[in-house]
What does this fold into?
Amino acid sequence: MDVRPSPRRALLLALVLLMSACKTTSATGGGSSPDTSSGSSSQGRTEDVPQGDPFPSRPSVEARKDAQADQALAQAIQQAETAPRKQAAEGLLAVRKAYPQTTAGQEALYRAGVLFYDAQDYANARKSFNELLFENPLHPQATEAKRRLGKAALEVGAYRDAYQTLYSLAERAEGAERTQLLEDAAKAAEKAGLFGQALRISVDLAGNAQTPEAQQAAVARVQQLVEGRAGFMDVAQIMEELSPANPAWPVLSFKLARIYYHLRDWTRLEETLNRFLAEAPNHPFAGQARELLARATRRVEVQTKTVGVLLPLSGKYKAVGEAVLRGVKLALAGSDIELIVKDTQGDVNVTGQAMEQLAFDEGVIAVLGPITVDESRRAALLAEELQVPLLTLTRQEDITGIGPFVFRNMLTNSAQAQAIADFAMKQKGFKSFAMLYPNMTYGVELANDFWDRVVANGGQVRGAETYDHDQTTFTTEAKKLVGRYYLEDRLDYLEGVREVQKETTGKDAFRKRKAMEKMKGEVPPIIDFEAIFIPDEWKRVSLVAPALAVEDIVTNACDARDLERIRKTTGRKDLKTVMLLGTNAWNSGKGASGLPELVERGGKFVTCSVYVDGFFVDSQRPATQRFVKAYRQANNGDPGLFEAYGYDSARMVRQLLESKQAPKSRGEFREALANVKDFDGATGKTSFDDKREARKPLFLLSVSNKGVTEVPPEQSAALGGS
It folds into this structure.
């Protein structure tokens, strides 16, 4: 194997040599410590991979022959025969210290290293061998010293040093010695995280194994390394120069094929699998290879009347998934379209597997769903990779930005904010607004979207107050909204304080306090807005509305006569009405009286409000009425938003597949879906824009003491929607 030292490694080696040459004669050996030599994976960073011979090619010390030193060495060797190994090694090091630049001193250093090694004192063994080899790499026992040095490094966890030393020895060895060195080098490389190097060595061992057992062990190591350790580039580079005669070739070849599968590189995948089956038709992986090849081939085989559905039919979102599925089945009833439903279980991994099954194994022409954010993103990424049209029903913003095969038909936060803002400004003529919203993702996102739309339409947001999502009292927020909380900041209040102080001069504290309280209560609210946007659930809205009324914010005067009546009751001529605006979270079930619970709990304080929704079961729109009637006949109860969106999505698919020019491929289906315009469905007339987002006029719902009614579509059709 061609191993060339990198410039960085060469520079480091030169510095080591320079430092070694400058050491005093009593210095102990160099080398890396276990703490600094071991390390983590360096895949893709070849400059960090130890390369070349780590020792100098020429002696840095000219050792001389010395009779006195030879005599001292002989005596130390004789004593070592009966002394414990470590004690004997220390005796030899004493000779080395006394005669440092002699051949006897170097021999003593070598023998001390051997004794330390045999005593399993690998740290001192490394120290001795390193010092010897940096001083004299041509020592008669240099090869054995390197072998023991590499093994010692392996024992103490200096895996990179061990790999470099053992592998450099193996390149010059032969037979059983070479095999053993390579096995040790592979072990060191793997522990050092040098998986590419470990893989190359293991492949070499497999190709040169002398026994079936050795070959089997080497191939097993190769298989272990390619499963989640060695990188794609390592496998690809080794395969470029590897002969199919090598027993490890099928393992690497099949791994490469699976990598191409995950990369969606179909051309290389098919080439690799076809060669694998030609070269190793009876290999244990051959069955999987044929299955993978068949699956890749089927990716372009489409069943033109087969549609996939991805929904959570178990787990946390089971009820939502079942609701959508009821709508989908109702839409396809009586058609010859085959529906293949996959339960995502609310799990992104299951979703990914199901999406691939629908694309490869079932040959669906398109997929409906999923609904949750994470599942939809996973499905969308795969839809784009596999080029399968996906009509998802998630609220996640910008999901269609993943690619041209991703469509979305679902009510989003931004669509609601835009629709209610457009209604208030374009139909009601409002220009100034306030906002009260919960400090949670839903509330913050809607508040931001509403504010942006107001500004885009030329309006202003005069006040914005947030509250905790589980809050139940809203006195403070209402006071802040109308300027009654920080009274010290108001000039009229400060003027009132001065008047009270002037009028109560000389009076007792009780009368002064009463006068001050009366003055505070008469400080008028600053209502410089025409509507308040409250993006929260109906239960919270029924608590917020009365708190606003306490601060003289009139929300229940729908016409001039109501307002005039309230003015006479309060004696306030400057009172004006403020409309409350909301989202589909205001939608509530019917209470004991038969009215929506929002009306039951909120009472008169929520009347005259308007909120937006993506579906209204009591709508007078003909398409919505047809859907509601059909649903009631097929199911027990009324449909909701998810049933309606599932129904419309499936009806659009059905309309395309039953048309005279029905698409015959996924690409044709994608084009046909992108060109859907004014599809008259239960959720409104739907068209897909250039971002493949479904656009439609939403349902604007007005609240009165008699319940909830729809703002006539002709008044809202031109307004912003989903």
The mean pLDDT is 88. The longest helix spans residues 175-191. The CA atoms of residues 567 and 573 lie 6 Å apart.
